[in-house]
Amino acid sequence: MRSITLVVLLVSSVCCVLAHPLENTNNELITIDTIHHHGIDTLDEYWTTHRMAKAQPLLNGVVSSLSGVRRHKPSVSDRLVDIDPIGASGEEMEGKPWPTNDGNAVQTHGRLFFVTPEGKDTFCTATVTASESLSLLLTSGNCVHQGSGGSWFDRFVFVPGYSASNKDGGRYHKWLGKYRVAMNAFIDTGDLGSNLGAVILYPFQDKRIVNVTGAQGIKWGIPKEIPVWHLGYKGDALHFCNGTGQEQPTDKTIVGLACGLPADAQGGSILADYYGQNPGKMNSVHGHRYAFGGKQLVLGPYFDSRVAEMYNLIRYLS
User: What is the DSSP letter of 204?
Assistant: First the structure.
């Protein structure tokens, strides 16, 4: 059930959000819902090191066809922004391990653990994203909600820098989820062009997550066929692909990248303006995968004016 109404104050294109828990009210674009932890200490009592190690990746991100998925007409007012290319091949990569075990990429990406309505311990990849709240994660919509009229996932915990040697969150802590967010078009119909989700985190020891890990930026309305990087998990390690983004002819709200990363990477960032060390700008997420001719496309929602509106609705939420 959608349970939060949003009062939006627009001043010079800056959005402030006041959230009130009122029944049967919601914003037309997104729904914000409180995460339930069922009365236990989720950080330590439920999400133990053993339970996190046994969790399985979400397996709802494979599509058999790219036809007939478009349900949203993109806005003709989406603003284009020129960016400098970083140069990369457009050929498919299987995904390479990230070469270091620290630094900006490792700190801002992590495993997002949650429990499905069927009670399965599951994970996706998520990215710490710059916002005024210093508490925002972006991931795919199907990493927070089942879509197509289904249910929310629950008991969210985020472990930045998760790895074989950092399974207890010791380096950058474990962070408890407070709110989950998804686009209504995905919640109601499973629209793949609206497959974007967010989680707002509680503070830990009086610190916000961005104070500990830093954050990636965000950008919308930019050209689709530009050099991009995709960062996400494969096994216990952060991996990456880099290449040229691909516009999808069957759905202008979806962008793609030839990349062989598996379900572990679902929800991971697709970054423009990224040079490997300094933060980049998110312009999509790994929402689903499409296999053809022995290759795989990683596909995600194009960050357009709808994403800008969603971001402005949640950037202050804490």
Answer: B
